[in-house]
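Shipment paperwork, digital attachment
Item: protein structure file
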Amino acid sequence: MRLKPALPALVAAAVLLTACGSPETPAPAPVAGTSGESTAPPSAGPSVAPTARAGLGGSGRTAGPKPPAGAAPKAGNPNGGASVPAEARGVDTSKPTRTIGTGTPASCTSEAVVKAVAAGGIITFDCGPAPVTIAMKATAKVRNANGPRVVLDGAGKVTLSGQGQRRILYMNTCDEAQGWTTSHCQNQDHPQLTVQNLTFAEGNSTGQRAEGGGGGAIFVRGGRFKIVNSTFVRNRCDRTGPDLGGAAVRVLSQFDNKPVYVVNSTFTGGSCSNGGALSSIGVSWVVLNSVLRDNEAIGSGANPAKAGTPGGGSGGAIYCDGNEFTVRIAGTIIERNDANEGGGAIFFVSNNRTGTMTIERSTLRRNPSGKFETRGFPGIFFLGARNPSVSGSTLS
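Attachment content:
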């Protein structure tokens, strides 16, 4: 992940990245039996054979109610209590670089969003006093030379809808079409993309297999990325595939392996082969005071794909693969997600066994794993440096 190719080699690097974890990911071996409800780490190491939970299957999830069209439901877990570091907080948008709209819903168009995102800077909306849904007719793409900060702030009143037809937002520092700005695109500190106070609804990246696919609402590779006070509803990506994922968000590489922050945000109703909400390869995450609910990993055959299957089905809410990365979850509720294969809540595989995960003051419940999970950690399949660290949390 730390290769620094000369500019002509960037295309090759982009192709190689998408496979950085999958060939080495061990095929999990299901073991019959039941797992306990305790949050205490089991005595065995992370290589303990996973076990299925009796009575829990991958298809029994009951979808939650759909929020009304155009509304921006309150995001996140207000009772989470996890402290938010300064770099994870929302950006001050009181002096925007540009504003989408001129005070009416009709002035807030897909074309205006696409143009503003390409231009970069701090972007706000002026669509009138009522909540508004902007039907995206094209994917908004970040131009790598514009910024270095790109901030989209919907003030809690704006929904960007992919209409079930397209991805909503895209950033890729290694995409030549968006401009190369360094000779080491896979590890550069810009652009720095922030989405805040927005709703992303019905994004769909099905069939978009560049860089491995995934990211129904948002796809990011490179630079820095964070999500603050935002809601993701009913997003989709491909139904099968061993390593693609992220019905809401897919991230590949961040500058110096700094984490993607997800703060006070909600993910619900997402569906993809893997990672019904979030998915990444070789990327660290910090998820604070958030809610991930009623998402699903619907692929079949796991990773590597079992013979005769298309692969996928892991990480009902979160799917993380790669080598050295970390995941921290604090003040967060992860519930009623499911996976056809493993990790009804979270699938975490560090191929070189250096990755770590911590869960603090969080609740993980009713996240059925269809075929496998790590004994003692309901809803989680984990392979890493050591067992997940769990404190002040409930796993059931």
